Amino acid sequence: MNTKEQNTVTLCQPIEGPGDAKFSTVEVLRPTVGSLRGLQLAMVQLQDVNAMVKLLPRVTKPALSPDQVEELDPVDFAALANRVSLFFMTPSQLASVQTMN
User: Smallest Cα–Cα separation from 58: which of 73, 74, 36?
Assistant: First the structure.
């Protein structure tokens, strides 16, 4: 499995895109320090809803708008937030999580 596939979340509820388009997968990109600007890192790591509403539009492809993030099904929001959290783990922590699955 390549990195793009690992970072792609399949949504339970498709999101409406431009026009009549709908999409059901979202790629989560590794946050940069710039994308974290204005956020409290601890709140991002705790998956605080307000922090994620600000961060997800900066690190998703296609880029979700804040309104789209707020309209996500809770299951989809949690899946995206969980994917973001994995970027803050060391390689050994990540390996431990992956062996648990």
Answer: 36
The pTM assigned to this predicted structure is 0.88
Q: Cβ(65)–Cβ(31) under 8 Å? A: no
The pLDDT tens digits for 39-53 are: 999 999 999 999 999
Amino acid identity at 61: K
Burial class (CB within 10 angstroms; exposed 0-12, middle 13-18, buried 19+) of 50: exposed
Domains of the chain, by residue range, sit at: 3-100
**Count of H helices and E strands in the chain?**
7, 3
Q: Map residue 83 onto helix, strand or coil.
A: helix
